[in-house]
Amino acid sequence: MIEPPYDRNKWYSVLGEFGLASRPYPYPDRSAYVSRLFTTAYRSQTARYNRLIEDICNDVNRVDLFFATARYVMDMDGKREKAMAYVSKLTAEERDNTLTRVAENCNIVLWVQGSLAERVESYKIALERMTIAAPSPVAVEAERALTLLQQRIAGYGV
Question: Does pTM top 0.85 for this prediction?
Answer without folding.
Answer: no
